[in-house]
């Protein structure tokens, strides 16, 4: 048996084909459940189509895997980073204004391609020297902690249901054997859902009213619909308002790829290369936006599932993408999942979001970041305080005006940018990225 294909429950499984198709299908459904709550929350908050969101999350994930040579076990779901952009253009989810916001997001996706081209031309080290462990580690920690608010809010709907989900996940993952050990998320979701239904906490009316088959999107919701009689001023406003958000999401992408690499133990920044993953993420965002779906981003929720299950085969993620595409054409299935109690998703998310932050801590610890240096303490402190503090502030972002346009930067955007700039300016840098020495990269690679 190869090093990469060990006994379940003892070592990570990278090639999961030996598990058999039935088990692979269950693992794929588990990943779909993990991303579903957050992915459909974005269209619920903005007014975009849930079915279109599922369709282009699946298609975007498959496109990402194709461009990244099928090596990176990442799922692309809805990005929360662009919420402020959607609300700035369509504050009340106005159907006629959302395509303009989507146009701005599509333009933001172009910035991914620009950065990817720069990396391809000049080498990864030119970029990665700005993302040492002292920067990527705290950013990953902040990603998980920022997401924690939504998990807690969902749990407060019914703490009993949430705790049942948490207990099932923990018990299955710690004491489970064989397949039980590697599907704790789906068991937690199903078990908690059933208990909630028995307690009368689930309203299945939307499921009964939904049709079995339906198209995921309408032409009038796409970007193409506005070019018959476009509002040029609104188009320009959308671009200026939303494009800067990509600065944060590109940093988040690097943090997510670092987290996945650290979890899996493979240097994905080197192979298939950061330029490929950025291109996949950017093109997926452009494609989704043009057809009226939210921007895509590599999903931390699914990284949490990888950490729990120890099954890292990208095939499982592609199966989850296929399920998302399939379900996008079935409003009844989407309604069934949408009826899932918020507390169920809250309980599961509580574990997954904590896993993300734990990966960030591991990133810092295993790379032996020297916190006896004041520069490192200052960088980590400002990234965490700004990212989390601004996110939980009354405004939830830092806004400034350029001409007649107001631009909002999330806490993660501000914290990331400050951390990157301080790391570049402060003396005492002891980090040197070398693609041929995995242990010197910004994550814990074991190739």
Distance between the termini: 18 Å
Low-confidence stretches: 1-10, 436-447
- The tally of strands reads 4
Series of secondary-structure elements, N-terminal to C-terminal: HHEHHHHHHHHHHHEHHHHHEEH
Strand order of the largest sheet: 1-2
Beta fraction: under 5%
The helix-and-strand class reads mainly alpha
What is the molecular shape? globular
Radius of gyration: 21 Å
Mean pLDDT: 80
Counting H and I runs of at least 4 residues, what is the number of helices?
A: 19
The main pleated sheet reads as: 2 strands, antiparallel
Percent helix, as a range, is 55-70%
Report what the structure shows.
This protein is mainly alpha-helical. The strands form 2 sheets. It has a two-stranded antiparallel ribbon with strand order 1-2. It has a two-stranded antiparallel sheet with strand order 3-4. Strand 3 and strand 4 form a beta hairpin. Helix 4 packs across helix 11.
Outline the secondary-structure elements.
Elements: H1 21-46, H2 50-67, E1 76-78, H3 83-89, H4 98-122, H5 124-128, H6 133-155, H7 159-175, H8 179-182, H9 184-198, H10 205-209, H11 232-242, H12 245-264, H13 269-290, E2 296-298, H14 300-309, H15 314-328, H16 331-338, H17 342-366, H18 374-391, E3 397-402, E4 405-410, H19 411-425
Antiparallel strand pairs: 1-2, 3-4
Helix pairs in contact: 1-2, 1-9, 1-15, 2-13, 2-15, 3-4, 3-11, 4-11, 4-12, 4-13, 6-12, 6-17, 6-18, 6-19, 7-9, 7-17, 12-13, 12-14, 12-19, 14-17, 18-19
In short, what is this structure?
The chain has 447 residues and is mainly alpha-helical. The chain contains 19 helices and four strands. The chain starts with 20 loop residues before the first helix and ends in a 22-residue tail after the last helix.
